[in-house]
Amino acid sequence: MSRGGGKPARSLQDLGTLRDALARQAREAAEQAAREAAARAEAERQRQWFSNAVGPVTALPAGNRAQVARPPPAPEPRQRELDEQAALREAWSDEVDVESLLLTDDGLSYRRAGVGPDVVTRLRRGEWAIQGQIDLHGLRREEARDQLAAFVRDATRRGQRCLRVVHGKGLGSPGREPVLKGKVQRWLAQSGEVIAFAQASGPQGGAGALIVLLAGSNGRGRVPADPATGKAPGGAAT
User: Pairing between strand 162-166 and 132-135?
Assistant: First the structure.
């Protein structure tokens, strides 16, 4: 065969390849069209089902909608909190003698100088509504101190005055001694925000909790007013 006789064969081969490619494209286009038709049919079935379920509806206009900007979340002062925790670890000692801190009675209550004994009595009686509570059960010493410090700090910022601190009765501790009880008393007595605390009454937790009174916003030991007279208890600092 001559060299020129090979050209028709190659042309036929090229035409066959082109024909196959066109056929494949046609099949793919047909399949794509079938899928789109099926999707439109399914959407129409869904629309009909919704219409039959809820009745006639009127679509809202696409525009004229309010664009409500959501406020960004408040920043968390994490570094400041870490600094405050570190300062409190240094300030709140486990070794301090509570009896050396101003006024105490039987070791179960505490009042800052200038706060009358009737404040402790009224705390024991539960005459002020408890505005916040923390449970330190099961926490290690450092965890309990950090969480108690944060609790007192946050309560002060929120303007809360009367709190309950649950330290437990030590029933699950070695020797059945309350491990956190004495530490919590020492920590609270060293806090500048605490003006008094007393062991809770039975309904409020008994020997497993303390009722704590915080200073006012001016930090001068002002106690809540008597509901009946509107005045602070006698002997309390103002």
Answer: parallel
177-200 mean pLDDT: 85
In the prediction, which pLDDT does 238 show?
A: 35
Total residue length of the chain:
238
**Which of the two residues, 99 and 36, has the higher pLDDT score?**
36
CB atoms under 10 Å from CB of 139, counted, come to: 18
Query: In the structure encoding, which two tokens stand for residue 118, read together?
Result: 């009737």
Helix 78-91 to helix 141-158 angle (10° resolution) is: 120
CA angle at 111 for the pair 110 and 115, rounded to the nearest 5°: 165
For 172-187, b/e burial (b = at least 16 CB within 10 A) is eeeeeebbbbebbbbb
Q: Is 176 left (phi over 0), alpha (psi -120 to 50) or beta?
A: left
Average model confidence (pLDDT) across the chain: 75
> Is the pTM for the entire model greater than 0.70?
no
Can you read off the two tokens belonging to residue 155? 């309560």
Q: What is the pLDDT of residue 221?
A: 47
Strand pairing class (209-214; 194-199): antiparallel
For residue range 6-16, what is the model confidence (pLDDT) as tens digits?
A: 566 667 777 77
Report which of residues 217 and 65 the model is more confident about.
65
The residue type found at 125 is R
| DSSP letters for 24-91 | HHHHHHHHHHHHHHHHHHHHHHHHHHHHHHH----PPPSS-----PPPPPPPP-HHHHHHHHHHHHHH
- pLDDT reported for residue 191: 86
